[in-house]
Amino acid sequence: MSGSGTVAGFLPSASGFHFANSWPHQPDITVPLPTGAVKIGDAANGLCGGMTYAVRDFFEASLPIPADVKNPPLHSPLYAFIVRRLFDSFDIPGGVMKYLSWQAPTRNQYRDTVDDEWPKIKAGVDAGQPVPLGLIRTRSFWPGELGKNHQVLAFGYDEDEAHHVTIHLYDPNHPDDDDVRLTFSAGDPAAEPDISYVVSGNAAGGDDEEFTYGCFVTSYRHVSPGDIR
């Protein structure tokens, strides 16, 4: 069955952050202790999950996205909110274990995306909700490879008569780009994997950072951003 759907009112260039997921070496969070401050994480590794969740938070709260075109500085309210949502996106411990399971070399990420996750993505978009996705960009049993994966937000889809599917995405790595998409065939179960990640009209299958083996819907729960600007 062919068809299309989109989340009304959502477009990355209007609803997404206008700065990129590119951060200096600074702690995600600093915890003050009697023995001294403890620094946790490194923002230079990326805050894609926090940015993705925060964008949906702003959208669902009917609040305009901050107009900043430069990344918010360390200790600013917006930075703190993005980092909070980053840790929420990890959904520790279950979420981390799900990424490990999905990146396993023994798993068929493509078929699991088509058979299990694509119907969830479609249902979410049809319900008017941007859908957060974990993108699998490595095949490894080693937990140290977890950081190679990525998080984005689906806001639309198209499916033609041949069951070629295009999922339209907000990608924190590509701010203000309304043409980022994930494509695959949902037709023949025996077909070879043909998933492709496309940015501004250019297929990214040959780029190690962009190549995507599959994706799954993550466990989003709304948090109000309040008066953060």
Write structural notes for this entry.
This protein is an alpha+beta fold. It has helices at 12-15, 48-60, 77-90, 94-102, 109-126, and strands at 3-6, 29-31, 38-40, 131-136, 150-159, 164-170, 180-185, 196-199, 202-203, 214-217. Strands 1, 4, 5, 6, 7, 8, 9 and 10 form an eight-stranded antiparallel β-sheet that branches. It has a two-stranded antiparallel sheet with strand order 2-3. Strand 8 (196-199) and strand 9 (202-203) form a beta hairpin. The radius of gyration is 18 Å and the shape is globular. The termini are far apart. Mean pLDDT is 88; it is low at 28-33, 35-41 and 205-209.
Task: Name the features.
229 residues; alpha+beta; two-stranded antiparallel sheet; 5 helices; globular
Structure summary, number of beta strands: 10
Low-confidence stretches: 28-33, 35-41, 205-209
- The number of helices is 5
What level of helicity do the residues show? 25-40%
Overall pLDDT confidence: 88
Write down the Rg.
Answer: 18 Å
Strand content: 15-25%
Q: Could you spell the SSE succession in H and E letters?
A: EHEEHHHHEEEEEEE
First-to-last CA distance? 43 Å
Silhouette? globular
Overall SS class: alpha+beta
* Sheet with the most strands, sense and barrel status: 8 strands, antiparallel
